[in-house]
Amino acid sequence: MSRHTPLWKTPIDRRALFGLAGAGAGALALSSCGMQTTDEGDGEGGSSAIRAAFDRPILDLNPFGSANVEQATLLAAALIFDSLVTRTDDGFEPRLAAEWEQPDENTWVFTLADVTYHDDQPVTAEDVKACIENIAAGSTPQAALWNALDAVEATDETTVTITTTSPVGTMLSNLSLISIVPADKVEDASFFATSPVGSGPFEVESFTASDHLNLTAVEDYWNGAAASSRLEIPYIPENSTRLTALKTGEVDVTWSIPPDQLAELEEPGVEVVTGPSFVNYFNWFNSSREPFTDVRVRRAMWMAIDVEQVVSDLFGDSAELATAPIPSPVFGYSAQDPYPYDPDQARELLAEAGLADGFSTHVMWAQGVAPQARPLAESFASYWNEIGVTVELQELEQAQWLDRLLALDWDMELQNAGNATGDADYTLGRLYSTEANRMGYSNPELDEILTGARSTTDQDQRAELYAQACKIIWDDAVGIFPLDPLATYGVREGIEGLEPAPNNQPDFVPVHRSA
């Protein structure tokens, strides 16, 4: 039996999650984005609301809806609701669960803390049971995480027992995604429409979908009140508008800043803050199509590119060279030796594969998803041309791109993506197994490793298995992994307490204005 009994009064970080990277288009006038503020005194922090502009719209406040792994929804959920546990840099810490234990590998028992919702009603085991069952039985992306769920039982008012049909190594990361609400509200769409009640550090003051979310700090929040009394999150999709608002002081914080626009913030009164993220870029090869069925061709394509130079030219200090098929903050990350830039060796590999004269192919990507996608594709194509490979560039509307992606109707595919749970299983198990068949790649040895990592709760063993998986995917050159973009934030002078979040969902509880 294993038990986790953490110290309750230890300050802890918010959830570490992530969804697919992307950006909106168009601009909204600041006056329509909840920008009006009042200078009311804060109990412990600054003298007015913290205004944080996101580039993605909050479509609704329902953590059980179809958008429940989208960044904007998760951001709102982390502020209004609480989960049983949260991921930190060192593992997991409690939220609503005061402690948990594992009587056996298929059973988890959680004891709830004495916590109430914003309306003073207690958080109960029945609430937790209803929320988990709703997610597991639903059709949202989170449902797939619960395939091994057998039962959820409210043993008493403060004890929840979860049983599974097989060991689930990702149990805690799965639970970190689930917001807890009253059992009778889980399926009540009207409850989430404008002002849902949660147990999180903020409660809703006003909300208009795709426009703004204004929040008020809960003074008696069980884990300590937020440092500022109000938080305003306007949706400003146009990057130039957001950056102008930051520079003029109309907003205090903004993030998801494109690398080619960071230089605009190099002026007095604004600081650029960066940190690792759960996002990575990859150029997949369709391993079911000639000539990419041959690993020598895939390796040749990688070795033909001076990846370090390309990343430096296009991303500067806003990205790190990738050293694994998952970003460094993700559990299970294991650094690999970089592929050298060696065009002569690349030509030799092509010749060994019977392609001494080169070949023609294409690479596709979706419009508006990955910053710098076109210049990245153009740079790659230029290098490939030097070894005799002619590449057609195909920038597609997102719906068309997705249709072709899922149908494996492509040669190469360039994109970026995020990890929603901070666990390697979400990326490696979901994308690189034979069953997933995302890029026509199949490796029985890798399948066995991924299955083993998913079905053991021994985290040290899981880390070792994912290290093996990273090496196989890297050595097989399933794709080219050029870079991991940093989480980039623009912060006004005088704003304190903000830490970059790898999941793109910063914790605003400690954020405040300096005295």
UniProtKB/TrEMBL annotation:
One of its GO terms (biological process) is peptide transport. It holds the Pfam family SBP_bac_5. Keywords: Signal, Transport. Its main location: other. The keyword Hydrolase does not apply. It is found in: Cell envelope. One of its GO terms (molecular function) is peptide transmembrane transporter activity. Residues 92-435 form the Solute-binding protein family domain. Belongs to the bacterial solute-binding protein 5 family. This is Solute-binding protein family 5 domain-containing protein. It comes from Candidatus Ruania gallistercoris.
